[in-house]
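Need tokens for this chain, all 278 residues.
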Amino acid sequence: MKQIEEFLGLDSGTIWDLIVQFGTRILVAAIILVVGFWLAKILTNGMKRLLIKRETEHSLVTFLHSLVSIVLKVLVLITVFTQLGLEMTSFVAILGAAGLAIGMAFSGTLSNFAGGVIILLLRPFKVDDFVETQGETGIVKEITIFNTILSTPDNKIIILANGAVANNTIINYTKADKRRVDWSYGIAYGDDLKQAKDLLLRFIQEDKRILVDPEPFIGLGALADSSVNITVRVWVKTDDYWNVFFDMNERVYNEFGNHGLHIPFPQMDVHIQHNPAK
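Here are the structure tokens for all 278 residues:
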């Protein structure tokens, strides 16, 4: 003991005080480490269960679970090092500068990641929805962390960045269970308007896919240059939208002529006046 006192230049009482002080720090640091990791595990598992309960995308659940677990454990380690008396200010400053540099370098990627999180959490659309966004229209095939993948009606694959999608207008055509189908049919001037409206109403009533509530609407939409335009609006189940739209167009084309109704086309009447004096 005397050799230690001589080597350190301290008396035995001071040495024991230092041992007790440093031992206490180690003990407290060990407790913080164990309890901190335990709490981090509880919090991350609780977050994971909550995300699963809300039917969050599985890829997002696993990613967030890992990310939050790492962040919490790093915070625990920083607390432990601080408890041991290690100077963490410089370390945190370096870590922050590195994080800023990485963030600037990957700002687009981080924006897409944030957009993916927003889409997966808020669910403005889901897989198999028919949407329009970023000037593109298609069926949602996959929602990844960074991209949304659409399949167009002609089977093209479109990959959109989530950052742009989340921050711009999204039109979801299949989110609601009902949609309104709109048509505008033109008949010639002089044709019987009431007959045309009655005929359209009969077509609507005979199509069992068209809903009676809300009530269908038929009205005179416009007196155009070459036609009298009739506006027709009905409600259908979302899945029946396109079939009803195309079937009604075909039926109007095939049957209007059988009832003395004419579907006009743009035309111009030219009048030539003959002046024999010249």
